[in-house]
Amino acid sequence: MFDGQKVKKMRSEQKLSLKDLSDKSGVSVSMISQIERRNVDPTLTTLYKLCKGLDVSISTLLGADEQAVQLVRKSERKSINFPQSNSKYELLTPINEGTIEMIMIHLEPGQVDQQLVEHSGEECGYVVKGEMTIVLGDVEHILYEGDSIRFKSATPHRFFNHSQETAISVWAMTGRVL
């Protein structure tokens, strides 16, 4: 479950009103309030928008303090599950304000990210198992097991899996995730 109190804390630290964050992120005042009060979990798109409005990475919103050496054991990984999605996102890097984040995405058969997302930085992905399609702008790229791809994150993008098996991919992202 997502801790909406982190959004409230960061918003307060930046001296932003609910309206200010709504204007910066494109998320309604009502939705931000519900998230902060832990009444609802944000969708992936909403989480990206909040990160953009707060100028932080996803791992910062989910996270802890930065340390000199950081290790994430498999058993200690944070998972992100989004409403209306069977996909699972595992954070492979420690939750901090570093300049690179790594995630493992498990896309179930038939899973489609409905909305294109865009944010600052770059992304590089590697398909560990199965196949997946990434839409970059108006162009679809089918990635098979062992394939990799790199692109500017400002290019609107989304993932889907039209195959009959779970697709597993690992992604490295620089910059702020939205």
Estimated structural class: alpha+beta
Q: Give the fraction of residues assigned to helices.
A: 10-25%
* Poorly predicted runs: none
State the order of secondary-structure elements, H for helix, E for strand.
HHHHHEEEEEEEEE
What's the CATH class label of the largest domain?
A: Mainly Beta
Q: What is the radius of gyration?
A: 16 Å
Strands, total number:
9
Q: How large is the share of residues in beta strands? A: 25-35%
State the shape.
globular
Keywords: DNA-binding
GO molecular function: DNA binding; DNA-binding transcription factor activity
Pfam families: Cupin_2, HTH_3
Domain HTH cro/C1-type: 7-61
Describe this protein's structure.
- The protein is of the alpha+beta class.
- The chain has two domains: 58 residues, lambda repressor-like DNA-binding domains (434 Repressor (Amino-terminal Domain)), CATH 1.10.260.40; 101 residues, Jelly Rolls, CATH 2.60.120.10.
- 23% of the residues lie in helices and 30% in strands.
- It has five helices and nine strands, in the order H-H-H-H-H-E-E-E-E-E-E-E-E-E.
- A six-stranded antiparallel beta sheet has the order 1-2-3-9-4-7, with no helix packed on it. A three-stranded antiparallel beta sheet has the order 6-5-8, with no helix packed on it.
- Strand 5 and strand 6 form a beta hairpin.
- The radius of gyration is 16 Å and the shape is globular.
- The model has no long low-confidence stretch (mean pLDDT 85).
- Keywords: DNA-binding.
- One of its GO terms (molecular function) is DNA-binding transcription factor activity.
- This is Transcriptional regulator.
